[in-house]
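User: I'm putting together a small comparison set for a docking exercise, and I want a reference complex before I start. The sequence is below, and the ligand is phenylalanine. Could you produce the 3D structure with the ligand included, as structure tokens?
Assistant: Of course. I'll restate your input first, then give the structure tokens for the complex.
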Amino acid sequence: MSTPTETELDALGGAIAGEIDGAGSIGALEEIRVSALGKKGRVSLLMKSLGQMSPEERQTMGPALNGLKVRITDLIQGKKDALEAAALDARLETERVDITLPVAPELEGRIHPVSQVTDELVAIFADMGFSLAEGPDIEDDFHNFTALNFPPAHPAREMHDTFFLKQDDAELQAQQKGGRAAANEPPKVLRTHTSPVQIRHMMANKPPIRIIVPGRTYRCDSDQTHTPMFNQIEGLVIDKATHMGHLKGCLIEFIKAFFEIDEINYRFRPHFFPFTEPSAEMDIGYTVDENGEQKIGHGGQFMEILGCGMVHPNVLKNCGLDPDEYQGFAFGLGVDRLAMLKYGIRDLRPFWEADQRWLKHYGFRPLDMPNLAGGLSR
Ligand code: PHE
């Protein structure tokens, strides 16, 4: 390459400046930059040729070429800023926000999955003619165990991992004044299930009875799927002609409505509860897909979802009902487990951690109230 004259350099500088000025986009500008200052760019090649020049030539050409490079770099940067500003202006023009428009208030609060599922369960059973009943969390031994046909000192009482309440002095004194030995009055408990409400309701109401009982229950147990406090819903139906077929029909209808599928695999497996005879546990079928997600309904794997049975004649007797006249069924299901199953929540412990982020993710909008007509869970 022959050494360019000063006029040639000026001409090259002018040509590149003209190109820069005419660039219509960042992309075009980048092409010009490469063609001038890139590895094989026009200015870069000239700078490389400095090596072949005589020392005198280099003395004038060095600064001249460097000046050209700086000038072009500045021009490109200036043009780039201008193009970017123009692009931003164009965007602002099209994306204009009308800040005078009214803003819809944002719903911040969420309904906890347990509340949502409780409402779903109540909606399903209300539709089958059940009404709501409630009872206290702190129970006495009679309602939680004895009246439910748990034999005295039977290991079933231990089986429930019961929380016993400490008896205070006033309570002990009152018992002694009443002439009873303190040891005869067992301590109060945190109810281990919602079944004691069966007793309370049967003692206070005449059949026909058709109730569901949502409530908190307590057992000394804690891991990924057990917490010391959990939620159950109890069901109780008592009249003169209700039999095991009604129990099955009611619960099959329930699982279809709850999981919102028409065909669902289930089985009733014989079990033991002191307060029902015969007793069963109901299992539902599921499959595990390739991602490890459980899919409820079909498949040969079964998981237990509730306990049920025909109310034991002794329980009816304990409530003043004649077992030769009345009969019926009861069931008890774990609300938290059902919430986990239906909404794919794997760990039970965050249910009670009051973590706003968890609640935002798993919670429900306050106005999405479950009802059968509108669809249970939308
Ligand atoms: N109370 C039982 C439990 O908590 C469940 C149950 C309720 C079983 C009613 C049968 C009938 O395990």
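The first strand starts at residue 131 and ends at 132. The two ends are 76 Å apart (CA to CA).
User: Thanks, that's exactly what I needed.
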